[in-house]
Amino acid sequence: MESIVKLDHVTKKLNHLVALDDVSLEITEPGVYGFVGPNGSGKSLIFKTVLGFLKPDSGRVLVFGRQLRKDTLFAEDTGFSMVEYAALADKTGRQNLELMDMLASESHDLDKLLRYVGLDPKNSRRYGEYSLGMKQRLLLAMAMLSDPSLLVLDEPTNALDEDGQEFLKKLVLEQKALGKTILISSHDKTFIQDVADGIYYVSEGRIRKNEKIVE
């Protein structure tokens, strides 16, 4: 069976310090996979490596069987939500999606997508004026724009209130039901346990253990 995501003995140094230390993992079945660990543990670096934003010093990264930096530069058929790769502050939510849509191979129903994540398509506020929760919702919309098979969501529960977390749980489980694979990190272990089929525990740049959630 072809891997959806495979990291094969990936190591990365940043500022002469080992940031990722011989990380290996393989995901072969669609579903939700949680990554938990303290700040600075390496969760975001693993995600950046999967996306192709970070080039390993050694090891291989494959997404849908294609090796990054060899067969393709970035992960294909993949959407992501990471705060540091945010939307344009001086544009509205819809304008940000319009700019992305111009680069897509086909046009999408942007109003429907915004409503799906709980945002008003007619809201004239710019992204820089959004609350943190609204920003998270727009980043999710941007991640899902092209209906990718793989979603990489880095700390999407940050700044979400209880209703926001319930909305996110529903969204993640709906995407899973569509046959998607979702990699999601969060400090909220309860949230991860509620949605994940498997959990990777990350510490000091290594995956210390992983476990499959049994219903």
Blueprint of the fold:
Elements: E1 5-14, E2 17-27, E3 31-36, H1 43-51, E4 58-63, E5 66-67, E6 78-81, H2 93-103, H3 110-116, H4 132-144, E7 150-154, H5 162-177, E8 181-185, H6 189-195, E9 198-203, E10 206-212
Parallel strand pairs: 3-8, 3-9, 6-7, 7-8
Antiparallel strand pairs: 1-2, 1-4, 4-5, 9-10
What are the key terms here?
6-stranded mixed beta sheet; 215 residues
Terminal-residue CA separation: 24 Å
| Envelope shape | globular
User: What percent of the residues sit in helical stretches (DSSP H or I)?
Assistant: 25-40%
Strand order of the largest sheet: 6-7-8-3-9-10
Quote the beta fraction: 25-35%
Question: How many β-strands, per DSSP?
Answer: 10
Order of H and E elements: EEEHEEEHHHEHEHEE
The overall pLDDT average reads: 93
Oligomer: single chain
- Poorly predicted regions: none
Number of helices: 6
Report the major sheet.
6 strands, mixed
Helix/sheet category: alpha/beta
